[in-house]
Design the sequence.
């Protein structure tokens, strides 16, 4: 059982607590950005399946995650509709762009896969942390319940990605790269500061 009271999933820099108050005032922007986070999560799992079809465990583990992420997209869309809001266009996702710049393209296929899996795990961890903030501090009781459920679900995905990384690369190699990427992620969050219209 994951203890959500602690620093979430090893992340080194907690989100600025002001973010949740600002986010609450921009809930349409947050929901739209969130919808596309779910779309990107589904798309990313589909890409991994297409790129690594020979990896049975990866294909079996990520196929249901695609459905879960798409269900999250659908649920965010429902929350928008209930409030008379529109989906709107996709926004440039600096957080993910910056993280992906740290993905190593060359080298062994397994090492490339490890980087992709760990970056996915980081995005899940940070999303989980943001959902925890929303769950704990947002006033709307419906959204509180919604974000709690998503926090639990994304924590499960985080575990899936880390487990898969360790399936295809030695544990100490994964651990070393994970620590490097945690530092990089903290620097990115620090450099982006508080963004009122973004999930990350
Ligand atoms: Fe999701
Ligand atoms: Fe997820």
Sequence:
């Amino acid at each position: 059982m994951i203890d959500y009271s602690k620093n979430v999933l090893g992340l080194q820099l907690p989100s600025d607590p002001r973010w949740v108050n600002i986010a609450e005032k921009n809930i349409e922007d947050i929901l739209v950005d969130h919808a596309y986070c779910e779309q990107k999560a589904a798309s990313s799992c589909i890409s991994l399946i297409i790129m690594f079809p020979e990896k049975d465990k990866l294909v079996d583990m990520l196929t249901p995650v695609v459905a879960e992420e798409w269900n999250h997209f659908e649920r965010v869309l429902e929350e928008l509709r209930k409030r008379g809001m529109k989906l709107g266009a996709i926004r440039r996702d600096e957080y993910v762009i910056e993280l992906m710049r740290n993905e190593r393209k060359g080298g062994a296929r397994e090492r490339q896969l490890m980087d992709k899996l760990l970056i996915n795990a980081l995005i899940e961890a940070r999303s989980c942390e943001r959902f925890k903030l929303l769950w704990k501090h947002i006033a709307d009781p419906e959204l509180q319940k919604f974000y709690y459920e998503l926090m639990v679900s994304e924590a499960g995905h985080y575990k899936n990605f880390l487990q898969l990384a360790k399936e295809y690369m030695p544990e100490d190699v994964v651990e070393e790269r994970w620590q490097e990427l945690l530092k990089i992620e903290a620097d990115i969050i620090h450099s982006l500061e508080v963004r009122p219209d973004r999930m990350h």
About this structure: The mean pLDDT is 94.
